[in-house]
From TrEMBL:
It holds the Pfam family MOZART1. Belongs to the MOZART1 family. It is found in: Cytoplasm, Cytoskeleton, Microtubule organizing center. Required for gamma-tubulin complex recruitment to the microtubule organizing center (MTOC). This is Mitotic-spindle organizing protein 1.
Amino acid sequence: MSSKESEKISEVQQTLDGKFVYDLSQLLNTQLDRETLATCVNLIEHGVNPEALAVNKLVHIIVG
């Protein structure tokens, strides 16, 4: 498999993963747009505690 083919497969996989995560977030009514959701996923992938992100989102909802 060539490097270009590998890159294309990776891009398609990332797109599908991103769409799945976004669709799931919509089903769960998270009220996160694609950009915010991508930022949250990136933070979690880099070791941020998901519960801390959830609490932060809840505080923003309550405080307004």
